[in-house]
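tool_call: predict_structure(chain=1)
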Amino acid sequence: HPDSHLPSRFAMLQFKIAASAAEREGAFRLVYANYLRQGLGAPNHFGMRVTPFHLLPTTTIFVAKLEDEVVATCTLVADGELGLPLDAMYAGDVDRQRSRGIPLAEVSCLADRRKSPSRFLGTFTTLTKLMAQYAQRQGIDELLAAVHPRHSRFYQRYLGFEPMAGLATCPHVQGQPAVGLRLSFSQSAIDNRAVYDMYFAEPLPESAFITDEMSAEERTLYSQVCQESGLDLSAREPAGVAM
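tool_result:
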């Protein structure tokens, strides 16, 4: 298991849904810093990366915290009012999944403060486990992701994703390339029980699933961040390649 060799400091991390204004802001600032450092985003004076999908009640932010600091995050965008971020690149592929009646959601906006591969692997595996259990509670059966081609092997080898769509250009991560991946819970339960058990064999505590609604003040602020970033709140826009 990827957690087995990690230092005890990993055990001090708290994995949860971002359930406060401070946790959401910490996640947005971490994604902004990561994307800026990797050349995936443009600077703004807010110092946060927020997408129109984050303003929807169907989007959920997950965080890993060390004491009061958000050190890792990822976002789950459930298929809804704006569709999915992947619609901007893979509309036909996503619509084919929809036509099969599969409840979908997309993994997006991944960021980690630490640069150590072992710390990243353990942290993101646990975050994804939390995300998968939450998604299943919401009736979602399939996770999608647009990832940089060099990260595709990680998603497939360690997280059980499978190829869904070929190479495309993602305009909102500075034109970086992406490939589409999918993870079906029901299919993995039959075809890849090891992957299914990795996510679901050990139920996480109820405390990890506590949520709250974004306040009106937050929505106003984050709408301004979206507008400064040139995002149209009424259109489907990609939230960015999951890194």
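agent: Helices lie at 8-11, 21-37, 87-99, 117-137, 152-159, 185-191, 193-200, 216-228. Proceeding to next step.
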